[in-house]
Design a protein that fits this description.
The chain is built from eleven helices and ten strands. By secondary structure, the protein is of the alpha/beta class.
Length: 270
Amino acid sequence: MGEPIRVLHVVTYMGRGGLETMIMNYYRHIDRSKVQFDFLTHRDEKWDYDDEIESLGGRIYHLPRLNPFSPKYLKSLDDFFRDHKEYDIVHCHQDCLSGIVLKYAKKNGVPFTIAHSHSSNQNKNFKYLIKLVAKRNITKYADYLFACGKEAGRWMFNTDDFTILNNAIDTESYIYNEEKSLNMRKKLGIENKFVVGHVGRFRKEKNHSFIIDIFKKVSEIKKDALLMLVGDGELLEEMKNKVSSLGLDDKVMFLGSRSDVSDLMQAMDV
């Protein structure tokens, strides 16, 4: 048997975010004797999935932070693809800036390029304006367009000509198990609570502020209600402050980034 096809995934980093976890769900289940994933990241630090990637045979490369206006960054991108001719497929997860990465992939002879849209909800700031301009170039350099849903694809690609790739999970690990549920509730000290749970990065598009507002009303109706928030992110401290301002400190659990999400969900009522 020959060497596997090596697919290069271009990401920011491989922490426990949504798109990163989606890639890992596929990576664990593909036939790695035929297809192998490697990763081109834009951070120097070590992240949650790095050890597992290397244990599965993947390689991790590092570039400076993606800056479309930086000659140094663009040169490093050009140099990388010039030096790595082993990739027949480059799969880019860099949002509206994917066109920049794929331009240099194409320049250096990569046969097949993919741009992948993971969101339709964007923070409207200066970076948003840059994205509006940059996304026009994606279809020039991407041979295939993937999206997690119709809205995400239409927003980033301005066309209906894309493939929806569902964020598949291993459903067996999420089947309700009463014993697991009781054990996790005991471990967390929430045996007699009505548990509302949410798993997601603390970013604007996840709308934690609204979740907390709704839970405030729930807690007024059900005195034993408890909110379990799983995840990390830039808005974490802001949400902790909001919880305190609403007097909900003893009713909200912030559990951070976790590797046991399926077990935590066993402990949730909603």
